[in-house]
Amino acid sequence: MSNFFYRNLKKNYPVIAKAQGAWVWDKSGNKYLDASSGAIVANIGHGVDAVREAVNDQMNEAAFAHTSQFVSEAGLHLAERLVRLSGLQEGRVYFTSGGSESVETALKMARAYFVEKGEHSRKLCIGRLPSYHGSSFGALSVTGHPARRRPYLPLLDSSLTFNRGQWQFANTPYPYRCRCGAKGVCASDACGKAYAAELETLIAENGAENVMAFIGEPVVGASMGALPPHESYWREVRSILDKHGVLLIADEVMTGLGRVGEKMGLDLWGIKADIIALGKGLSAGYLPLGAVVASSAIVKAFEDGSGVFEHGFTYSGHPVACAAGVAVLDYVERNRLIEAVAKKESRFFQGFRNLSAYEIVGDIRGRGFLAGIELVANRTTKEPFPADVRISQVLAREALAFGLMVYPGGGFLPDGKGDHIMIAPPFTIADDELEEMFKRLNMALGSVSQTLMTIG
Ligand code: PLP
Fold first, then answer.
1. 16-20: strand order across its sheet
2. Nearest residue CA, atom 12 of ligand 1?
3. Three-state DSSP class for 16?
4. What gap in Å lies between CA 317 and CA 121, rounded to an integer?
5. Which atom of ligand 1 lies nearest, measured to the CA of 134?
6. If we measure between CA atoms, which residue out of 36, 44, 94, 63 comes closest to residue 285?
7. Is residue 94 helix, strand or coil?
8. Given 35, 216, 251, 312, which residue has the most CB atoms within 10 angstroms?
9. Which of 7, 105, 254 to mutate to test the pocket of ligand 1 (most atoms within 8 A of CB)?
10. What count of Cα atoms within 13 Å lies in the side-chain half-sphere of residue 136?
11. Mean pLDDT of all residues in the chain?
């Protein structure tokens, strides 16, 4: 009997003993290759000395300062670095302790911006279906994932169904199951534009004067398994939002800071957001840290107005977390890891080629070092597995038995079906470790496929 409130109280979790590079050990002596960087977090790998030293130094200097009383040099420095990386010149950074807090902050910042400008009617936010933006109430309200919302529906303001009240949802572009019914994976520009046009319809239906923001993950992460949109989509979205004066919030919690081979995910399409939510790889798991980068136009509204963003967390801008963030960015830059991900992307995806021989592998997708495998019961018809089979969990368990950590997800289709796993190793993973990763993944897929064949 343990007093730990496990994620699943019916499951046993190994106790972690050690983590180094791309490897993790548990207290029972098992060793795992971390092919998912935990939950797409440990971008620079585990156990980097330079981060530990920076954290120790900051601990020795001053562990805590509340942002109503002090700022830290680490916070000031990290803000400058993030503005530079995001390309939002003259912007400013609001620190948080993780992705959900970043999304909450971004949503409230968008609303507060319009209040500062006197545009009080702008309060609606458009999200996407499916999507994942976090566990807190604001982030969950704009999350398009029925299973994650279901128990809390009565508590989610105006959200008993999708598209009610101030949280509206447009469909997420889904090239594998495109609205045009393409047999394979749709690459049509017209389809990308058609998905973007849904957004414009929603803006028109609600009145642009009532809409404050649109939020999306540049490449969809946890809900759909590393799903990039059609090439034309994001540029079209940006121009629609500009036309109607609606803010673009990029949820780059998973995609930001190198994961997709660019500084920011939207850089893949050469466009900029107005507000960027960051987390995960920012501190690469060394300490809890998130950030929101606001463009200069957003900042100016506050500077010209009240000067105050009515918001705040006790641990916002925590000096030690910021010191970890600076050390992680230093490590990424010193070792040119974003460039390395971009350079290795095509070789990385080639590694999946053999896996497409398995009947349960429906689609392999992603960008940079963020890959997803959609699992299907029938490859020709794209029929998903019944939800209660929980095939992504079955595969993740099997992978773990082969000493491989992957990140499973499911329930993204309207009927609650849909399964995927994500493969997103640390940027620092060595070539021979990558080879080992594909070998173990192959074994796990082979074993699950064999079992499925046996039970018919
Ligand atoms: N946004 C995205 C795109 C995410 O992938 C996640 C977490 O998976 C979050 C927000 C929430 O982040 P956190 O779990 O750090 O609160």
1. 16-20, 23-26, 31-34, 404-405
2. 99
3. strand
4. 31
5. 11
6. 44
7. strand
8. 251
9. 254
10. 13
11. 96
454 Cα to the center of ligand 1, angstroms: 38
Question: CB–CB of 211/407 below 8 Å?
Answer: no
Question: Which ligand 1 atom is at minimum distance from the Cα of 101?
Answer: 16
CA of 307 to the centre of ligand 1 (A): 29
Tokens representing residue 77 in the block: 């420095």
- Cβ atoms of 374 and 420 closer than 8 Å: yes
Q: Which amino acid makes up residue 243? A: K
Top mutation candidate among 132, 278, 407 for ligand 1, by most atoms within 8 Å of CB? 132
The two structure tokens encoding residue 28: 């029972």
pLDDT per position as a tens digit, 102-151:
999 999 999 999 999 999 999 999 999 999 999 999 999 999 998 888 88
| Euclidean distance between CA atoms 158 and 314, whole angstroms | 29
Of the candidates 161, 167, 157, the residue with the CA atom closest to the CA atom of residue 124: 167
Tell whether omega for the bond before 218 is within 30 degrees of 0, i.e. cis: no
Residue 346's pLDDT is 97
User: Which residues form ligand 1's pocket by a CB distance below 6 Å?
Assistant: 39, 98-100, 103, 132-135, 217, 221-222, 251, 253-254, 279
Of the candidates 145, 97, 126, 67, which has an alpha carbon nearest to the alpha carbon of residue 277? Answer: 97
**Token reading at 201:** 């319809």
Radius of gyration of the CA atoms of the chain, in A: 22
Record the tokens describing residue 316, joined without a space: 């916002």
Tell me which residue has its CA closest to atom 1 in ligand 1.
Answer: 133
Residues whose CB falls within 8 Å of the CB of residue 389, separated by 6 or more in sequence, listed in order: none
Q: What is the pTM of this model?
A: 0.98
- Tokens 């969809």 belong to which residue? 220
